[in-house]
Design goal:
Chain lengths: ~280, ~800
């Protein structure tokens, strides 16, 4: 469990980061909290001759809450949990963050690392798709914005170029009821199945619904059809069944130590139904 | 304060002797990060060794090229089997009478097997060196199923085939097949078959007790330092049996035993993982001899999980017979035991399946037969007793499941069935059908106490209602009530039938009283977290009347401690604890003579009273143990040589038989397979209780490891022999989050043959806990037709059970 030797870089501004990335190309990787990258390096599954630590780069750890919410890439899950204004404005973030890993990991793990790595087990990508967030990346050619729902291509493959760095996620302040429901084997585990749900209620009917699932495919799964199945209904049993059924068409889980495909599909359905019920009760 | 104001109770309390919840003296250093573990040892010029390990479960090695590795900066040597062969060290004996490759000798038999040992200036260079060693493998057919192994033409171990091509004899008799290791039989075969054939009711069931791992927080490791000037080898390591390791190292290496010093420093948990001898120890010693420098080897977590000391992996098939009203008449058990590539079980030599023959449990079963077949497969070697006496968890799981299955067959309440069959108090000492003589017990009292404590009848009523509600669609949760009554067999053991490789399983204590009335006692055992420095001092305090706080306990250094067989199988208190009491009594006997001299009376006219000897009938005339200690060294006493020391080597007359009654109340979500432990009640009877707080800690720890094993912890392999659970991401190690609240309780039935009546407790909660958690899962589904589903009961397997029973339809 010892990584191959590597050069450790600790630039103090983004220009410094980008110049190292440009110089070393594929041989360089940026590191935020390190909780995805370092284990891969220790297992020698990731070979990173040049490791760029972002922690001395300023301006990446802020949280601003307004009609638009912006979270810097270096904000930790712990920061999110402790930020009361954020929890008031977008309570699903705290609810989800409390289900990520364990307190020690949450002190280190960052939003940027969680969404940028493209690990299908991470919770933030699905959550950001549910919130229809936008990711900001910066590279040698300047800044660009990528919608979360278009960011993930395959496991560990994303819309970010190798010489680009994730700097922030932003999204419109969510409205309506929320729920983040996750089944896992133990504290610290990735999800067997997880569902992020935001629902807007208008009178007794559902005005809009956004649903995304985690660890049930090689990318997070935003299921527009599942959300659509709820719109215009009173979110009764039949509507939930329809939403679950639509979601099941969009996921593609694989067998692993958590269980076979049939089990995962079943649990995905149960978890989503529970998430919808809880979100609706809060809407 | 005047002496008269001090009451006898005050004097007892000030000793902090047996029965008191004395705070652990070890914890000051452990809680401040001041422990001294093997990886804390740093010596001048120390090198670091690490293994090239096989990625394949079964392969021929056609070539090993170490040249590139030798070019890696900091790498000093790369050892292979070819280097060890001239020393005869490329194989080593196992504790089970088999032999094991130290480094791959032409082939590998399991994934992770040690292929080459890279010695470097630090562990980073060693890791880079490992990457640079080029090994050419030729894959061979992989066998991970013991039943397939017994049918297969594939020969896993060439040394199991004789010159005529037929299977050669193994360490425990003839082989049935070249992949077969031993058959071990116990009990009466034909009478058992007869009883079962003629029985009114027979329940039959097969169950698999899956492979798992003890996974102590600290992995295995050592530092070997050969001093070429004085010819002395010092070996620090995570050894649960340092003295046995010294003897084994001497026998393997040819170094005379007085020139070997083995030291077990602080050990971060053992649970059986650190009993065996591993290739890392041998390679570190050889590397130190070759380089003339100290060499350290420390496993990482994956090494630990994948290679050293798995536990269980027993395929058990049982038949139990009874009368219509539930009186058990016979028990038959067959085990197919998967031992992996080498038979490296850590059992007393005459017991190749350990004490599996305690599988008649707490019940008066007149006729029984047990047969165990050990088998080689392409899995890691081990077969250690993970927080249990030798194979006792397997035995207790087997009988406690068979009781439940019989209850189903009889359509009887499982508690009622147990009560009908418990060995009665007046039957002790009880000679069991498979040979053991249970020393003592009072099972009915313990059981009734447990049933009352949890309101068993109330729970059953609630469960009945729950089933109705479930069937009516009002709930998706089932309620399971898990019961277990276990009887352990610990304290190995009497030298007449318990030895490991010929080393008798006695243990020892040596005491020196200092002139000012404090003391040091050394034992042949070694604490790995059990709190020996606390509890053994308490035994001595009560025996010799000096405060526990004035007694140092030291273990683990073979140059200073008396010889003993170490700590595992809950043997420290039953064996070394007895030696401690006996040595203390020798001290007291001499102290009595000194006291009598000082008080100018006959020896018989003084008697021991807490912390002093008093003149019989005149309690105002006394000499404290402190005064006696000073006199022992500093006063010329006719006929008595100076000093106050004693040593005792204790060969126990019998094993001890702790028991307990456990109840687990579990909620099960049939849609997700998620379990929630609502209540866990554990009543333990470990005989005399030395330190109730430490006992409570042991119960909590053992139950937590039981929860782990029952609900998710496993070493799983795919068909290619790849380990699927080699990291803590997939290997379930519970945290505070997963652990329920435990209610502990006790009865006290002292062991009649142990000097202080103690029986050992460290492993009881694990032995009893595993079947209790498992029985709760089974019980929840009993009403829907479930008889047996194998552990671990993780989410998906519970979901599968519900699914197969049609509960998702």
């Amino acid at each position: 469990m010892i990584p191959a030797s590597f050069e450790y870089h600790r630039p103090t501004d983004m220009a410094g980061v980008l110049s190292i990335l440009v110089e070393h190309g594929d041989d360089a990787r940026v590191m935020a909290g390190g909780h995805s990258l370092i284990p891969m390096m220790k297992l020698r599954m990731a070979d990173v001759p040049h490791l760029i630590d972002l922690q001395d780069v300023g301006g990446l750890a802020g949280i601003t809450v307004g009609d638009t919410i912006t979270i810097g890439a270096m904000v930790t899950q712990s920061d999110i949990i402790l930020h009361d204004a954020l929890a008031d404005a977008a309570p699903i973030l705290r609810e989800a963050s409390l289900q990520i890993a364990d307190p020690q990991v949450r002190y280190m793990g960052t939003v940027g690392g969680n969404v940028a790595n493209g690990d299908p087990g991470n919770d933030m990508p699905g959550l950001m798709q549910c919130l229809d967030a936008t990711f900001t990346v910066v590279g040698p050619n300047g800044e660009r914005k990528i919608p979360a729902r278009e960011f993930y291509e395959a496991a560990y493959m994303t819309g970010r170029e190798d010489d680009e760095v994730m700097t922030a996620v932003s999204f419109a302040k969510p409205v309506g009821g929320h729920a983040y429901e996750k089944q896992k084997r133990k504290i610290g585990d990735y999800a067997t199945a997880a569902a992020a749900v935001q629902i807007v209620k208008d009178g007794g009917t559902c005005a809009s619904a956004s649903i995304a699932m985690t660890n049930l495919s090689d990318t997070p799964v935003y299921s527009a059809a599942a959300g659509d199945a709820l719109v215009g209904t009173s979110v009764d049993g039949d509507a939930i069944k329809a939403a679950v059924s639509a979601m099941l068409n969009d996921i593609d889980p694989v067998e692993d130590n958590r269980g076979p495909v049939a089990f995962k599909r079943h649990v995905a359905g149960v978890i989503l139904a529970r998430a919808i019920e809880r979100a609706w009760s809060r809407a | 304060m005047k002496d008269e104001a001090v009451t006898r109770e005050d004097r007892v309390a000030s000793l902090k002797g047996m029965g008191c919840s004395r705070k652990r003296v070890e914890d000051a250093r452990f809680t401040q990060g001041k422990g001294n573990y093997v990886d804390d040892i740093k010596l001048d010029g120390m090198l670091f060794g690490d293994f090239v390990r096989s990625p394949y479960a079964h392969a021929k090695i056609t070539n090993i090229d170490t040249s590139a590795a030798m070019e890696v900066p900091g790498v000093l040597a790369v050892l292979t089997a070819a280097d060890l062969a001239p020393l005869g060290l490329h194989w080593m004996p196992t504790l089970a009478g088999d032999k094991q490759m130290v480094l791959a000798d032409g082939k590998v038999l399991f994934q992770g097997q040690e292929v080459a040992f890279v010695v470097a200036e630090d562990r980073y260079a060693a890791a880079d060196g490992i990457e640079a060693v080029e090994v050419e493998y030729e894959e061979l057919p992989v066998i991970v199923d013991p039943f397939e192994a017994l049918q297969s033409d594939v020969i896993l171990r060439p040394d199991t085939v004789g010159e005529d091509g037929s299977p050669s004899d193994g360490a425990h008799g003839p082989r049935k097949h070249h992949n077969h290791i031993f058959t071990w039989e116990c009990g009466d075969k034909d009478p058992t078959e007869q009883v079962i054939a003629n029985a009114e009711v027979v329940a039959e069931e097969s169950m698999y007790y899956h492979r798992t791992h003890p996974c102590p927080l600290e992995t295995c490791g050592c530092v070997a330092s050969m001093d070429k000037v004085n010819g002395k080898l010092t070996l620090w390591g995570t050894f649960q049996a340092p003295h046995a390791i010294r003897t084994v190292v001497s026998l393997i290496s040819g170094i005379e035993e007085h020139n070997i010093r083995v030291i077990s420093p602080d050990i971060g948990g053992g649970f059986g993982n650190k009993v065996g001898a591993y290739p890392g120890y041998v390679c570190s010693v050889v590397a130190s001899i070759v380089t003339g420098k100290p060499v350290k080897w420390i496993e990482d977590r994956m090494d630990n999980l994948m290679t050293t000391a798995f536990a269980r992996d027993y395929w058990m098939k049982g038949r139990i017979s009874a009368t219509k009203d539930g009186k058990i008449t016979g028990l038959h058990c067959h085990v197919t035991a998967d031992h992996g590539g080498f038979d490296a079980c850590a059992d007393p030599t005459k017991f190749p399946a350990g004490f599996m023959n305690i599988c008649t449990g707490s019940y008066d079963i007149p006729t029984a037969f047990l047969e165990v077949d050990g088998v080689y497969t392409n899995k890691a070697p081990g077969g250690v007793s993970y927080r249990c006496s030798f194979r006792v968890t397997e035995a207790v799981y087997f009988i406690e499941r068979m009781i439940e299955v019989l209850a189903i067959e009889l359509d009887m309440d499982a508690s009622e069935l147990r009560k009908i069959n418990f060995i009665k108090k007046e039957q002790f000492p009880y000679k069991a059908a498979l040979g053991w003589e249970y020393d003592s017990g009072d099972y009915h009292t313990a059981w009734d106490k447990a049933m009352n404590a949890v309101d068993y009848d109330g729970l059953r009523a609630e469960q009945k209602q729950r089933i109705e509600d479930f069937k009516a669609g009002k709930t998706r949760k089932l309620l399971g009530i898990g019961l277990t009554h276990f009887t352990e067999i610990v304290g190995a053991g009497p030298v007449k039938n318990c030895d490991i490789l010929g080393l008798g399983m006695f243990d020892s204590c040596e005491i020196r009283i200092h002139p000012t009335g404090s003391a040091i006692a050394r034992l042949g055992t070694i604490s790995q977290g059990q709190g020996h420095a606390t509890t053994f001092a308490q035994i001595l305090a009560s025996e010799i009347g000096l405060p526990a706080d004035s007694i140092t306990i030291e273990e683990g250094d073979t140059d200073t401690a008396p010889y003993g067989l170490g700590t595992y199988g809950s043997r420290s208190t039953p064996v070394a604890g007895a030696a401690t009491a006996m040595a203390g009594r020798k001290i007291r006997a001499k102290a009595q003579m000194i006291a009598a001299y000082l008080l100018e009376v006959h020896d018989d006219d003084v008697e021991f009273d807490v912390d002093r000897f008093v003149v019989k009938g005149a309690p105002e005339k006394f000499k404290t143990m402190k005064e006696i200690a000073f006199a022992a060294y500093n006063q010329a006493i006719p006929g008595i040589e100076p000093g106050l020391e004693a040593v005792s080597y204790y060969d126990p007359p019998n094993m001890t038989y702790p028991f307990g009654a456990y109840v687990c109340v579990m909620e099960i979500d049939v849609d997700t397979g998620v379990t929630d432990i609502r209540q866990f009640y554990a009543l333990d009877d470990c005989g005399t209780r030395i330190n109730p707080m430490i006992i409570e800690g042991q119960i909590h720890g053992g139950l937590t490891e039981a929860l782990a094993v029952a609900l998710g912890q496993e070493i799983a392999y795919d068909d290619m022999g790849n380990v699927k659970t080699g990291t803590l991401m997939d290997f379930f190690l519970p945290t505070a989050w997963e652990v329920p609240n435990y209610e502990t309780d006790h009865t006290v039935t002292p062991s009649p043959h142990h000097p202080i009546g103690a029986k050992g407790v460290g492993e009881s909660p694990h032995v009893g806990g595993v079947p209790c958690f498992s029985n709760a899962v089974h019980d929840a589904f009993r009403a829907f037709g479930l008889r047996q589903t194998n552990m671990p009961h993780d989410h998906w397997r519970i979901w599968r059970t519900a699914n197969e029973l049609g509960l998702h339809d």
